[in-house]
Amino acid sequence: MPTLLIILAAMFLLLQLAPGDTVDALIAQMGGGGDAKLAEELRRFYGLDLSIPAQLGNYVWRLIRFDLGFSAIYGKPVATVIFERLPATLALMTAALSFAFSVGLVLGVIAAKRVNGWPDTVISTLGLIFYATPSFWFGLMAIVLFSVHLQWLPAGGFEDVAAGLTGFARLRDITAHLVLPTLTLGLIFLAIYLRIMRASMLEVLTLDFVRTARAKGLDETRVMVRHVLRNAMLPMVTLIGLQAGTMLGGSVVVESVFSLPGLGRLAYEAVVQRDLNTLLGIVFISALLVIAVNFLVDLLYARLDPRIGNGGAS
Amino acid sequence: MSAVLSLQGLTVALPSGADRPEALRQVSLDLHAGEILCVVGESGSGKSMMASAIMRLLPGNVRISGGSILFEGKDLASANEATMRALRGARIAMVFQEPMTALNPLRSIGDQIAEMFRIHTSLSNAEIEARMLALLDEVRIPHPAEAARAFPHELSGGQRQRAMIAMALALDPVVLIADEPTTALDVTTQAQILALIRDLQQRKGTAVLFITHDFGVVAEIADRVAVMQHGLVVEQGPARDVLHQPQHDYTKALIAAVPPLKAPAPRAISSESILVLEGVQKTYRSGGFFGRRRRETHAVRDVTLSLPKGGTLGVVGESGSGKSTLARCITRLVQADGGSIRLDGVDLLQLSKREARQAARRVQMVFQDPYGSLNPRRRAGELVAQGPMIHGMSRDAAMAKARELFSLVGLDPAAIERFPHEFSGGQRQRIGLARALAMEPEVLVADEPVSALDVSVQAQVLKLLAELRVRLGLSIVFITHDLRVAAQVCDLVAVMKDGEVVEHGPIAQVFEAPRHAYTKALLASVPGRGFGA
After folding, report:
1. Secondary structure class of B330 (helix, strand, coil)
2. Could you give the dihedral angle defined by the CA atoms of residues A180, A185, A190 and A196, in that order, rounded to the nearest 10 degrees?
3. Distance, CA of A99 to chain centre
């Protein structure tokens, strides 16, 4: 809770430093003109004529009543605007995370098994390339290759609205739209997970209990699956929580490239249009999302590692 | 009696660039059914390599280059991996040194023991469960059903080692290889584990290959002994013969280095005290928010002791007895909660921070781990000169002093330019000693200074410490868990248990006529008590 409040207050004050406000943006949209009286009235209507602390106070007070305010630009309550956009972002994040985690895990294990052999070299080099390449470039290249040249997958959007699909067909349509964004967003994280997994596998493999497992007569596959994997996964799990925020940030770029109607793009538009209420709403929801993910990760970690959570070590 | 396991001219090659070309050279040994064969040697003698070679679990770049390992009519040196997997655990089982790290921290004890049956047998789950509980009962773990559900970190070191033994004996192996199984344990726990291994071995007729560096343990448990040095078996024979009439020079030297448990004739000690501890207390509190799960550990409780000028006060006890915390209180690395620690009449606990830093030079500490206690990125000389420089000495003078101290502790003065990893364990402990002495302290607090060292090196460091004590007029607080070492270096001894001093007095008196039950138990647990006396 205190974390949330600090984030909101900081965001609020930071936006006050940016030149111009919602009203400037609105007037610019209406075709400009220097009608000072109209601007004055609009400011009073949106409560922007108050002092900054009073505006902040008002905002927090409304937030306590779960009211995210009204978006001047979209002409709808902020909550409605955000919840329209949330599914796309959530779907993208979940898909990218699952993709990065599972493929990163598998590649990391393969690289660690064949350390310094050719699979390791190939995987590590690929990882470095993924990590070093900006995701928007990946996105654009993927569009050029898969959408323009091969015409396998749609170039952008969340679904084909015009087709009016329902049920399973709609799901398939959305999945097809999400493949490229997921790959684009996931690749960087895949590179990180793969490197962490490789390093932590190599470390766990030197531990004494692995030798014990071999001395028990386990074959290599079972040594890996039953003894090494779970221990090696612990740092990866920690990383998921830490990177939930980074992933939301990354989705801004990816959503813009693939014109996905998600939170990231909404945030970008809100900044450009000085739509303070929407932006604060997004910050609020994102912070909640990151906190929720971290909470889940902590729970998961405690499940995975019995040393955590039941009274500490002896 | 025929041998169940027979090594014939076994040679194991190390990768090029190692300090010697072969880890094992032409090793021939026979292990008979129902006997305990102890393989003794110092670190680097190749004794653990031998265990790995038999199990064919050698590190990737190390390989068997000659000889054979005959077991049940097969040569393990050339057996294929599938054959080895069927043998490992089932016919030849192994117990390792460090019971904490040798068990998977994420899986329950019962699960890990049951895994043995799941790999090698086709028993039903219910049967496995029953067998597993019977095993835990057999190794005398209290509350087997609860222990089976427990995770390794929830058991004590001794219980973990019992679980390891239960796991190793699950399938009634013909051969049990125990690689330093009691080295990481307290002396009373060690005595129990040794008794357990002996007892199980006799009941089941298992042949045990017992690897150790400790002659006390050898005297306690061995039927036959093989002594190893630099990858060679230099001497083998019945335990009685090897221990009491050693033939080879190396064996003789090793045995001579084992400190006898009996204290030498008392030295005259000054009646004047330099360090007086009165009612020293230290309590650790853990658990934070809203008092949930708050725990208090009384690490040091009301300790009153005095250290005579020029004397050595031994503090002995098992892990968790509070002896290291006491050492840290004296050097003010840990702030005591109550009582007084008076150095020459000045209470160290009442000093301001600034005064305390000044006083720090008068009480210096030598740490246990010669590997972890020296900063690996700095040169040995700098590490020694650092202290005097902080206290205002010029760099040149401090380095000159470091050079002087290096020769005092028996190191080459030119070695001050080298980094810690270029020294052996014993040499590093000498650097640690030089670092402490650089401050010209009056009191030296040595926390387990020789525990991590081989016996022969240990003897050298102890000898050096004794010389320095006389030469520099040092008074020493000597913390140790090893009663043999304590007997040799201390004038006075205090026995600690659960943060309290249960008995203290002149060493000969405490060791020969212990009054407290715990002291008696401790002395009775020393392996091979009669040996070396």
Report:
1. helix
2. 180
3. 13
Nearest to B119 among A217, A230, A312 (CB): A217
Count Cβ atoms within 10 A of the Cβ of residue A179 and give its class: 0-12 exposed, 13-18 middle, 19 or more buried. middle
Q: Which residue of B has its CA nearest to A301?
A: B106
Residue B454: Cβ within 10 Å count: 20
Q: How far is CA A134 from CA A187, A254, B258, B264, in A?
A: 10, 11, 65, 75
Q: What φ, ψ does residue B70 adopt, rounded to 5°?
A: -95, 125
A206 touches chain B (CB under 8 A): no
Could you report the average pLDDT of every consecutive run of 10 residues in chain A (314 residues)? 73 70 66 67 69 73 72 76 83 87 88 83 86 80 78 71 70 80 85 89 87 86 86 86 80 80 82 76 82 85 76 38
Measured CA distances, B485 to A261, B191, B489, B490 (Å): 75, 18, 6, 8
Contacts with B435 (C-beta within 8 Å, 6 or more apart), sequence order: B383, B384, B386, B387
pLDDT of residue B39: 92
Determine, for residues B151 and A219 on separate chains, whether the beta-carbon distance falls below 8 Å.
Answer: no
pLDDT at res. A309: 57
Round to whole Å and give the CA distance between B121 and B117.
5
**Which DSSP category does A143 fall into?**
I
For B317, residues 6+ apart whose C-beta sits below 8 A from its C-beta are B323, B481, B495, B496, B497
User: Which residue carries 């605007």 as its tokens?
Assistant: A81
pLDDT below 50 — which residues of chain B?
Answer: 291
Show the 3-state SS of A20-89: CCHHHHHHHHCCCCCCHHHHHHHHHHCCCCCCHHHHHHHHHHHHHCCCCCEECCCCEEHHHHHHHHHHHH
Instruction: For residue A199, report the phi and psi dihedrals to the nearest 5 degrees.
Output: -60, -40
- List of residues 6+ apart from B480 with CB closer than 8 A: B314, B315, B316, B448, B450, B451, B486
Task: Please tell me which of the candidates A222, A227, A312 has its beta carbon nearest to residue B104.
Answer: A227
| Amino acid B208: pLDDT | 92
CB atoms under 10 Å from CB of A302, counted, come to: 13
CA gyration radius, chain A: 24
Q: Is A214 on the interface with B (CB under 8 A)?
A: yes
Given 3-state DSSP classes, what are the helix, strand and coil percentages for chain B, each rounded to the nearest 5?
40, 25, 35
What are the tens digits of pLDDT across the range B469-524? Answer: 888 888 999 998 888 888 888 899 999 988 889 998 898 888 888 999 999 988 88
Please say whether the beta carbons of B418 and B428 come within 8 A: no
Task: Tell me phi and psi for residue B106, to 5 degrees.
Answer: -100, 0
Chain A interface mutation, best of B54, B57, B104, highest count of A Cβ atoms under 10 Å: B104
**Side chain identity, residue B328:** R
* Residue B440 main-chain phi, psi, to 5 deg: 50, 60
Q: How far is B488 from chain A (nearest CA, A)?
A: 33
Q: Name residue B86's amino acid.
A: A
Cα-based distances in Å from B160 to B98, B151, B181, B345: 9, 10, 11, 46
Quick one: A298 exposed, middle or buried, by C-beta within 10 A (0-12, 13-18, 19+)? Answer: middle
